[in-house]
């Protein structure tokens, strides 16, 4: 019979979530030092984690919720589960990247979009962290920006009050807090069909409702585009990757193969699933994650910080540069190059000779700007995607095209420069 974890210790700084979290997953409060345990919150639970004798799973509560691994006595019996894609742990620790539901989200369902902009300001921040920035956006976009202000958690009235007075009245959410705070709010609004304008430093592609931006003009443009949906009901956006209780079973944390061999092209400290197929002539740098059943062909190079999903395939001579994120089921032909910090969505097919460039913008201090490609995209051979532009979901780009503009969802473009041809129905 499979062994299930039934107890949990919730960190003191997460007490607001405690009751909902325990009820959501049918967990009891922490009682045994030897039985397997979920520790919700790493930093505030560190002393208890140190003393615990049984198997322990640390569920992080945010991008800064990492512990001092060098001070942890027993690393061999420990797993960590987090939604972050840039979370460094010792080689002995079992690592899982998932977004777990931390409470009951059933209250948040799609409804008619309001006509205001919601700004997540967080705790103890009456005007947000960027008041001048917000004022410029409000004046330029022509829509009222509403926000909450809580000096402390106890000021928070109820989820129903927040939803009625703020969420229901808005059509989009702005989140400029750093580092990546307010993810629960983002997820709640996403489930209601509202997207969030933010630049995630840690969660990458896992947060599906995110719209990235470069400056205030870009934010205004996004708001005006999303405002076209006012009065409509949009599809729910669920970013949770684990909605069953599978993560509560100990065998879910079966150790994946940690690759590291001085005689191979694979560097230490990589998490490569034991079903992945890495060609002997491929070169994999350190701090790389490669998912289940993914194939890396001969003479491919995967640079440090890259995250490649499950069931992907790279034919030969492909270069995946630093901190690139590639979703499940994506395939690439030979001699493709994805520049550093680029993103490729799920189930995207890219033919040979594709280049996502990062040529610096000399007019803006030599700054490199790279965006990426959405889900279910088809890109023909020898296509170039120029810096700072993106290709939307379900779009098609014809062979030998040079993309010098943002391609929206569900469109077919081709040419040099690529231009709109027709909708991809």
What secondary-structure arrangement, pairings included, does this model have?
Blueprint: E1 7-10, H1 15-25, E2 28-29, E3 37-40, H2 46-51, E4 56-59, E5 78-82, E6 94-97, E7 116-120, H3 131-141, E8 145-147, H4 159-165, E9 170-175, H5 183-191, E10 195-197, E11 210-211, H6 216-226, E12 258-259, E13 270-272, E14 277-278, E15 283-284, E16 289-290, E17 295-296, E18 301-302, E19 307-308, E20 313-314, E21 319-320, E22 325-326, E23 331-332, E24 337-338, E25 343-344, E26 349-350, E27 355-356, E28 372-373, E29 378-379, E30 384-385, E31 396-397, E32 402-403, E33 411-415, E34 418-423
Structural account:
This protein is an alpha/beta fold. The protein has 3 domains: 7-100 and 245-251; 116-229, Rossmann fold (3-Layer(aba) Sandwich), CATH 3.40.50; 256-420, Hexapeptide repeat proteins (UDP N-Acetylglucosamine Acyltransferase, domain 1), CATH 2.160.10. The chain is built from 6 helices and 34 strands. A 9-stranded mixed β-sheet has the order 14-17-20-23-26-29-31-33-34, with no helix packed on it. A hairpin with a 2-residue loop joins strand 33 and strand 34. Helix 3 (131-141) packs across helix 6. The longest helix has 11 residues, at 15-25. It is globular and about 65 Å long. 36% of the residues are buried. Mean pLDDT is 84; it is low at 124-128 and 256-268.
């Amino acid at each position: 019979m499979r062994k299930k974890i039934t107890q949990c210790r919730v960190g003191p700084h997460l007490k607001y979530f405690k009751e909902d979290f325990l009820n959501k997953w049918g967990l009891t409060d922490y009682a045994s030092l030897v039985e397997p345990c979920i520790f919700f919150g790493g930093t505030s639970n560190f002393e208890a984690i140190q003393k615990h004798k049984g198997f322990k799973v640390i569920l992080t509560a945010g991008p800064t919720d990492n512990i001092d691994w060098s001070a942890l006595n027993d690393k061999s019996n420990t797993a960590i589960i987090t939604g972050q894609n840039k979370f460094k742990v010792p080689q002995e620790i079992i690592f899982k990247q998932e977004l777990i539901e931390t409470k009951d989200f059933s209250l948040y369902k799609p409804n008619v979009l309001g006509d205001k902009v919601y700004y997540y300001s967080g705790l103890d921040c009456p005007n947000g962290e960027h008041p001048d920035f917000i004022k410029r956006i409000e004046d330029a976009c022509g829509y009222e920006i509403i926000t909450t202000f809580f000096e402390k958690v106890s000021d928070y009235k109820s989820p129903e009050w927040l939803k009625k007075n703020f969420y229901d009245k808005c059509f989009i959410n702005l989140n400029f807090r750093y580092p990546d705070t307010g993810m629960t709010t983002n997820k709640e609004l996403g489930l209601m069909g509202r997207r969030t304008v933010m630049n995630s430093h840690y969660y990458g592609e896992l947060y599906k409702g995110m719209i990235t931006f470069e400056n205030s003009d870009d934010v205004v443009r996004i708001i005006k585009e999303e405002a076209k949906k006012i009065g409509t009901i949009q599809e729910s956006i669920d970013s949770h990757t684990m909605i069953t209780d599978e993560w509560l079973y100990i065998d879910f944390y079966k150790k994946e193969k940690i690759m590291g061999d001085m005689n191979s092209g694979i560097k230490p400290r990589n998490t490569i699933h034991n079903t992945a197929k890495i060609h002997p002539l491929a070169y994999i740098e350190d701090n790389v994650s490669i998912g289940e059943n993914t194939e890396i062909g001969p003479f491919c190079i995967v640079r440090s910080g890259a995250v490649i999903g499950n069931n992907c395939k790279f034919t030969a001579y492909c270069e995946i540069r630093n901190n690139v994120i590639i979703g499940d089921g994506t395939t690439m032909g030979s001699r493709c190059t994805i520049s550093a910090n680029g993103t490729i969505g799920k189930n995207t097919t890219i033919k040979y000779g594709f280049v996502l460039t990062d040529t610096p913008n000399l007019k803006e201090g030599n700054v490199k700007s790279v965006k990426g490609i959405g889900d279910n995209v088809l890109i023909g051979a020898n296509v170039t995607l120029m810096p700072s532009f993106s290709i939307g979901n379900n779009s098609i780009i014809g062979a030998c095209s040079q993309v010098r503009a943002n391609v929206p969802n569900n469109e077919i473009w081709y040419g040099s420069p690529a231009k709109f041809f027709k909708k991809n129905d």
